[in-house]
């Protein structure tokens, strides 16, 4: 998410109670938007920003026990990790000392916390990307690369120093793979982390997502390697979700390519398998309107008129607009498959 968009959504009334400065000026109406109204993922930034570490510890413990998921099947624990990461990226170097103090306070109050080292590593990782810049590699200065490498190495050390206590949370593996990749870990070591993570936390698909980034063409991978990995993992005994995993992983690779118009021509995706995975997702999570909208968008892109026709009466137009990539609108899909009356 674009940082400026996040700022407009932040619960600024909550931030007024936090021991850190506001990251940027937001529209007045944003002050009336509370974190609680933005879904469970935002409770991570809420509790951390307000210094309510006990509430954050209890929240994480409850999510681990319940394995809570949204209507679309997203793990709420991963949403907490994702929103914390987005939120940490908002802050500039003037707040680094304050962040350091807050992390130290959290550690002092909860020395055995599994979550605190993960957030500390995420914060250091955010400063690494801040120093590097979000542009293409060719735009990064020598100093930017040096800071990026140094800070990722420090983030990696935080994770490894606390692996015993923190790897009880599946998001430790997600972050370890992401940060380890940026820190330049050997591929064999990353694969070992991945295998260990899915063995210890079966079904926690964000671990797959973190590892699969390397197979996206945008990140130096290729569709052949992506397909081999996806087929291997879908067939593995460590996969408890059947064809759902096949669908989720190809969906991810396509997202990394911004919904390329040539996805079905250039990738090695098997649409009948992907369709079966979507069908399983809809059985497992029948209220998942986001899944339904994406299912229909992929059916449209795959030229599957029968599937699109079955799904069309159930679609929420607003949600479909957010699901379909550029050029794939309800009007386009309707014109492609449905007879005008």
What is the general shape? Answer: globular
Pattern of helices and strands: HHHHHHHHHHHHHHHHHHHH
Helix content: 55-70%
Query: Strand-residue fraction?
Result: under 5%
Structural class: mainly alpha
Mean pLDDT, as a whole number?
89
CA-based gyration radius:
21 Å
**Subunit organisation of the chains:** single chain
What is the rounded distance between the termini? 40 Å
Key structural traits:
341 residues, mainly alpha, 20 helices, disordered N terminus
Description:
This protein is an all-alpha fold. Helix content is 63%, strand content 0%. The protein contains 20 helices and no strands. It has helices at 3-9, 12-15, 43-49, 53-66, 76-88, 96-109, 115-132, 142-161, 163-166, 170-182, 187-200, 206-212, 223-235, 243-256, 263-266, 271-284, 289-301, 305-311, 317-323, 330-337. α6 (96-109) packs antiparallel against α7 (115-132). The longest helix has 20 residues, at 142-161. The two termini are 40 Å apart.
Topology overview:
Elements: H1 3-9, H2 12-15, H3 43-49, H4 53-66, H5 76-88, H6 96-109, H7 115-132, H8 142-161, H9 163-166, H10 170-182, H11 187-200, H12 206-212, H13 223-235, H14 243-256, H15 263-266, H16 271-284, H17 289-301, H18 305-311, H19 317-323, H20 330-337
Question: Summed up, what is this model?
Answer:
The protein is an all-alpha fold. The chain is built from 20 helices and no strands.
């Amino acid at each position: 998410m674009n940082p400026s968009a996040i700022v407009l959504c932040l619960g600024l009334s909550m931030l007024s109670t936090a021991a850190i400065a506001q990251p940027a000026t937001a529209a007045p109406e944003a002050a009336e938007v509370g974190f609680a109204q933005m879904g469970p993922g935002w409770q991570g930034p809420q509790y951390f920003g307000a210094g309510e570490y006990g509430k954050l510890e209890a929240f994480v413990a409850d999510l681990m026990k319940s394995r809570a998921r949204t209507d679309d099947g997203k793990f709420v624990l991963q949403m907490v990790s994702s929103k914390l990461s987005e939120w940490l990226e908002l802050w500039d170097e003037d707040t680094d000392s304050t962040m350091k103090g807050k992390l130290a306070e959290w550690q002092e109050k909860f020395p055995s916390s599994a979550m605190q080292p993960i957030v500390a590593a995420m914060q250091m990782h955010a400063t690494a990307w801040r120093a590097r810049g979000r542009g293409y590699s060719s735009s990064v200065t020598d100093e930017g690369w040096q800071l990026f490498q140094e800070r990722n190495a420090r983030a990696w050390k935080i994770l490894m120093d606390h692996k015993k206590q923190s790897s009880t949370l599946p998001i430790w593996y997600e972050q370890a793979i992401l940060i380890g990749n940026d820190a330049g870990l050997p591929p064999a070591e990353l694969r070992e982390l991945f295998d260990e993570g899915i063995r210890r936390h079966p079904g926690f698909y964000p671990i797959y997502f973190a590892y699969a980034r390397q197979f996206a063409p945008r990140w130096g991978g290729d569709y052949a390697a992506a397909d081999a990995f996806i087929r291997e993992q879908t067939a593995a005994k460590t996969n408890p979700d059947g064809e759902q995993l096949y669908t989720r992983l190809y969906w991810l690779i396509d997202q990394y390519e911004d919904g390329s118009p040539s996805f079905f021509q250039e990738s090695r995706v098997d649409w009948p398998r992907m369709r079966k995975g979507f069908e399983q997702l809809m059985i497992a999570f029948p209220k998942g309107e986001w899944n339904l909208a994406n299912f229909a968008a992929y059916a449209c892109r795959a030229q599957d008129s029968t599937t699109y026709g079955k799904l069309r009466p159930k679609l929420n137009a607003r949600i479909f607009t957010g699901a379909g990539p550029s050029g794939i609108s309800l009007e386009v899909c309707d014109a492609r498959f449905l007879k005008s009356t």
